[in-house]
Please model this.
Amino acid sequence: MKNVRSIKTSTRVCAIIGNPVKHSLSPAIHNAAFAELDLDFVYVAFRVEDVKHALAGMRALENFRGMSVTIPHKMEAMKHVDAIEDVDRRIGSINTIINDNGKLLGLGTDGPGALKALKDAGVEISGKNVLMLGAGGAARAVAFTLASNGGPAVIEILDINETILQELTADLTPSTQAVIKSNKMTDNALAKAMAAADIVIHCTPIGMHPKEGISLVPVELFRPGQVIFDIVYTPLETKLLADARSKGLQVISGVEMFINQAVLQFERFTGVDAPVEVMRKVVMEQLKP
Amino acid sequence: MKNVRSIKTSTRVCAIIGNPVKHSLSPAIHNAAFAELDLDFVYVAFRVEDVKHALAGMRALENFRGMSVTIPHKMEAMKHVDAIEDVDRRIGSINTIINDNGKLLGLGTDGPGALKALKDAGVEISGKNVLMLGAGGAARAVAFTLASNGGPAVIEILDINETILQELTADLTPSTQAVIKSNKMTDNALAKAMAAADIVIHCTPIGMHPKEGISLVPVELFRPGQVIFDIVYTPLETKLLADARSKGLQVISGVEMFINQAVLQFERFTGVDAPVEVMRKVVMEQLKP
Model:
């Protein structure tokens, strides 16, 4: 069992930066995984306002190997790294930074975490009609990843904010062979989109703690065979998922995306396969009601 | 027993920076002390070349509470902190940085560590004749601290390098009521100085591993009642100390200064009394032949 007493001069440091960070689960998840595999790493949390200098410091501090970036710094952090993966530049945000001998590589694992959650659940994306509810930062990450890697026939996006909706549509269209549709979120548009969707991915904060018990999607719009994925994970089962489950639909909780984004970060930090079940157990213990 | 699994978002980080740092004992010493007192702290090591940005990072990373600064950065680090204690500005180097809500305070614990080693050994400094062998960075820290706090009647300094000798003498003279004498290190000057000294503090690398078995001071120069303090701590007992001990003199090993500089850092990092015996035990385990 690894102990702080066992930390050595060789121990590599990873950290989450954000503001606030005090409720982050990331230190618990990653340290449990490091301990499980007896890796010479430790993971801490730093509240940060000045992202530029936080990253300058990471670059200068050898052994500061990896960083998780959370709200509100996912866009700002892009300006201060030395390289960004192409898809993440198009998404416009990153949640992970790897320090490779003083060169900082920025990348995102939110979209790939969502894709892995769908694949792990056995969901076939290729050729399917995907409905995205919401066009904000998380939706961008998920949409670009699915568009680039999943091969859907159609991605339809609804949002009440037409500005971000049009931005996402314009950015996404040249990056994919999928048909990209977008519409302002109205009762009518939602009903039509639900009638066509095979996979519904909910990327708005509706139904998130402390405003539980509400759902964007009227129960009568669910159709047999649909897969409903809610990226919200507090609560573990939102009203959207409970409603869908009551109709017999396959549901995927946002906690799977959350676990997988951490799994993918861990594997970039360490270069070894993550102990997924240990990480899942920590998350579930922290989130249990 | 504290475990990396127990690291939380509130855990405060301390680190040593230097180049190299891989042989540093500081992570072992401080983590053992944190664990002993069950403090929510962790201590890591960062090799650093770019001190400016390492400190900019420390400032930006809330929870990065304390830093130990070692060779070759003890002077450079002064340029990049927000405040320096007066005595340390005169000494011209720091070994400790405290991050107080984004404001970096630089200070030195080498000199105070030496003073504490003398006091802990029951040595009376007030009114005494102190002979310093060597005028380099460590000698400066010790000389300024004794001059400011110990009340010696005379501090005589010998060095083969007349430039640093004159600098230290010029800097020290206006800071103290003690009489400051300095002379180029020669056989004759050493013999005269040893004839007058009550306390001898050796601050050169002579006798340090791997060049053990040599001493600046011929055995015949020791006089009954003298206290001999060697700031070298590898080996734990240098030839200088072994010779002095064979003549029945009180001797103090540099390891006491090394432990005390860490003790004083720990107390600045945490605000609580250090578990000195735990820290001593770690140092002794690491240094035992």
Chain A touches chain B through 47 residues (CB under 8 Å). Residues 254-270 of chain A form the longest helix (17 residues).
